[in-house]
């Protein structure tokens, strides 16, 4: 079986620490880490085995963390201070992500699980993307078709939220809430839910304005954009409803009335999920041609190197990736079996 590809994240943050802790807990037996062996050894007392390809995982001695060093990784990362922005760390984080995508596209990895990156470090390195989602979307582009439409899902045991807009200023995000963007989000969310066993998910759509605008009293986006997109989704067979008041729809979903909530902006959707706790939260990029998950937290520069980092969210991301792969394989097997049955002579 192909291994999971785990990217190191920002070397000055807690990514290397949570990777080492997850490894000690036995959660990386089927994974290869892309990063700097010295940084990972600094993050915790661990033996590393440098490998050249993901297939070399089979030959790694027990108790050794398999590390693949991507071409072009900056040198001397372990000498840089923890908890501080540095361009080399941003460059290294991007290098690991880019190589992970190349490997999974070449069929050498099963899925990608990314440790947290620092957006300021990316910017300092001249990386032209504000975060993982946008970078992965660009790297997944195909000749003649361009980048695939993607969306961010944040999930835990109680709530699953998909965003229409992501890393934009609030002023720009308001302009980005369009009919096509909302309908596209509903389509992506509907298709992606099959990966966790919900072929026909109940999707609640949160409004943009207070009380979902109270029939146009506090703005008209619900009437002119969001509502029509919901109706268009319904016409396509998607079980969508709303728009609902944003201040109550998450509570209703948590109680079991809905399987997913689509929210218009980053903080509208993510504050409720993160309030419930980031320990089990998972960030999933929907719409990519491969599985990608990540912990539901950032680099936590304030606690980097202090032995306080909790690997629970990374472990949840690893397990989500495995479940998604298993569901995909089961769906493929079911499809092949169905085709064989159809072709069987009567």
Q: Nutshell version of this structure?
A:
Helices cover 40% and strands 15% of the residues. The chain has helices at 15-24, 37-43, 87-105, 119-124, 132-139, 170-176, 179-192, 221-235, 246-254, 266-275, 312-343; strands spanning 4-7, 31-34, 47-51, 64-68, 111-114, 151-155, 160-163, 203-206, 240-244, 260-263, 282-286, 292-295.
Write the layout of secondary structure elements.
Layout: E1 4-7, H1 15-24, E2 31-34, H2 37-43, E3 47-51, E4 64-68, H3 87-105, E5 111-114, H4 119-124, H5 132-139, E6 151-155, E7 160-163, H6 170-176, H7 179-192, E8 203-206, H8 221-235, E9 240-244, H9 246-254, E10 260-263, H10 266-275, E11 282-286, E12 292-295, H11 312-343
Parallel strand pairs: 1-2, 1-5, 2-4, 3-4, 5-12, 7-10, 8-9, 8-10
Antiparallel strand pairs: 6-7, 6-11, 11-12
Helix pairs in contact: 1-2, 3-5, 7-8
Keywords:
346 residues; alpha/beta; Isopropylmalate Dehydrogenase; 2 domains
């Amino acid at each position: 079986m192909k291994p999971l590809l785990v990217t190191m994240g920002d070397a000055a943050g807690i990514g290397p620490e949570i990777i080492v802790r997850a490894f000690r807990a036995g959660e990386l037996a089927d994974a290869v880490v892309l990063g700097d062996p010295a940084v990972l050894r600094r993050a915790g007392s661990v033996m590393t085995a440098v490998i050249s390809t993901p297939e070399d995982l089979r030959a790694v001695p027990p108790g050794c963390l398999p590390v693949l060093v991507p071409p072009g990784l900056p040198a001397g990362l372990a000498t840089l201070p923890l908890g501080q922005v540095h361009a080399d760390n941003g460059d290294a984080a991007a290098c690991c992500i880019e190589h992970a995508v190349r490997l999974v596209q070449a069929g050498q990895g099963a899925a990608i699980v990314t440790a947290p990156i620092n957006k300021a470090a990316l910017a300092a390195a001249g990386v032209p993307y504000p975060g993982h989602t946008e970078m992965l979307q660009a790297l997944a582009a195909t000749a003649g078709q361009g980048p695939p439409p993607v969306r961010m899902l944040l999930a835990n045991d109680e709530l699953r939220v998909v965003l229409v807009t992501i890393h934009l200023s609030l002023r720009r995000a308001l302009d980005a809430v369009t009919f096509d963007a909302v309908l596209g989000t509903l389509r992506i969310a509907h298709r992606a839910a099959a990966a966790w066993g919900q072929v026909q998910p109940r999707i609640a759509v949160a409004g943009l304005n207070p009380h979902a605008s109270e029939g146009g009293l506090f703005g008209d986006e619900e009437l002119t954009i969001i509502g029509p997109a919901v109706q268009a989704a319904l016409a396509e067979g998607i079980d969508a409803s709303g728009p609902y008041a944003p201040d109550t729809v998450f509570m209703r979903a948590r109680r079991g009335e809905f399987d997913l909530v689509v929210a218009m902006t980053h903080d509208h959707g993510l504050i409720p999920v993160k309030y419930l706790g980031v320990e089990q939260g998972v960030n999933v990029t929907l719409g990519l041609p491969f599985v990608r998950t990540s912990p539901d937290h950032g680099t936590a520069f304030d606690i980097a190197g202090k032995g306080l980092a909790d690997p629970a969210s990374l472990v949840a991301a690893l397990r989500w990736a495995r479940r998604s792969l298993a569901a995909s394989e089961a769906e493929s097997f079911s499809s092949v079996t169905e085709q064989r049955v159809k072709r069987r002579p009567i």
